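User: Some background: our group keeps a shared notebook of sequences we're curious about, and every so often someone picks one and asks for a predicted structure to add to the entry. Today it's my turn. The entry only has the sequence so far, pasted here. Could you supply the structure so I can complete it?
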Amino acid sequence: MPALICGSLAFDTITTFPGRFAEQILPEQVHILNVSFLVPTLRREWGGCAGNIAYNLQAIGGAPVLLAAVGVDGGEYVARVAGWGADTSLIHRDKELHTAQCHITTDRDNNQITAFHPGAMAHAHQMRVPSKAERSDLAIGIIAPDGRDAMWEHAHQMHEAGIPFIFDPGQQLPQFVGEEHRRILGMARWVAMNDYEARMLEERTGETIAQISQRANIEGVIVTLAAEGCELWIQGQRTHIPGVPAAEVLDPTGCGDAFRAALLYGLERGWELRRCVELGNRIGAIKIAARGPQNHSLEPVKHLL
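Assistant: Of course. Here's the predicted structure to add to the notebook entry:
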């Protein structure tokens, strides 16, 4: 059955800094930060969390339905997504703003500095999650990084429609105060974050990850640890799931989105969470060996499905 993906569609401008950010930034001078990085390579890629998740989910045999926004320059992107066979009927086409733009610089240690212009994403809240009467086929969903109002509205609408969803606040986590996070956590079925975001969520909510995982409505909290795999928290109990070695480490952009596609695929099929996470680690290892968030093939994992 289809999975509803609420998140961003964006164009990614990806550059690589061959040095280390840490060698260029003086900690004692961050209050007057003024740095410039020479980036000898530049690529423009299809991106955005919703687009990346949908790409991976479609590639492993899922059925993504995108609820997102594009701008006046987004027609080619919508056609691309439709070309995969994904459902684009809920994509908002803004007539004035441009599609969101993400500028990402990665250093030699795979640290990233990102600048994001929301563009049409700021109007994503104008699209509504279908009611059960309108779309009874939606089995699962995800609230991925998007416009702040869209994430807030869509979480409530998904809950009202009875669609179990993953809360993936990502880089938009700082846009919500603690009480707002606590309310969304009270509606979500699963939570997925990286380790930095997990620490920030603990600070914002005043709850530990263990405590969040013990909420009555939460079936699991996943904290990704890059190459080290991830932590799986269920009812206050932590399990470490080892990472999968990558053939190459070329570009981490979109690895988290690839991982989340595996969660959606497995959970929709009733897999136990550990199996979903193990698939996510494998897909993430494949993605990091390819440049760009939507250029890799997932044929190597088809036998695991």
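Suggested note for the entry: Residues 178 and 205 are 4 Å apart (CA to CA). DSSP finds nine helices and 14 strands in the chain.
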